[in-house]
Amino acid sequence: MSMAKKDKKPKPGAGGAADGKVAVGAHPRARTSIRRWRGRAGMIALVCVTLLSLRAGVPAFDAVLRGLAGGVAAQFIAWTAGVVIWRHLVLGEITTHHEAQRAAAAERRAELERRAAGAMSTAAAPRR
């Protein structure tokens, strides 16, 4: 079997969802925002927990370990919160887009009906 001819399967979350479902990972602003908040939350928690542990008199090695554990926990919490928040934002964007499409379609339909009524009235008018 040749290594060069492997089947390339799309990564889950890369690109749009093939089955029509909304994927937060496919949204470019959501993906970068969640990544940014995860990093910030982890670093802030690491620093805060380490400093608070050192002020409480915990040995430095244990304080750093606690800081790392706090940073990892904060990353998971920030990731979960980011996914939940962005899921609502993406669904709101989709709803707004659909409403705008419906309004534009209704406007086009009204314009066509107005033109058809105008054409019917000129066709029905007696000619001299």
Tell me the layout of helices and strands.
Blueprint: H1 28-55, H2 60-124
Helix pairs in contact: 1-2
Q: In sequence order, what are the helices and strands, one letter per element?
A: HH
CA radius of gyration: 29 Å
Number of structurally distinct domains: 1
User: What structural category characterises the helix and strand content?
Assistant: mainly alpha
Largest sheet: none
Helix content: over 70%
Contiguous runs where pLDDT drops below 50 for at least 5 residues: none
Question: In DSSP terms, counting alpha (H) and pi (I) runs of 4 or more, how many helices?
Answer: 2
Distance, first to last CA: 86 Å
- Average per-residue pLDDT, rounded, comes to 85
Count of DSSP strands: 0
Give the overall silhouette. rod-shaped
Task: Quote the beta fraction.
Answer: under 5%
Q: Quaternary state, please?
A: single chain
Descriptive overview:
- By secondary structure, the chain is mainly α.
- The chain has one domain (about 25-120).
- The chain is built from two helices and no strands.
- Helix 1 (about 30-55) packs antiparallel against helix 2 (about 60-125).
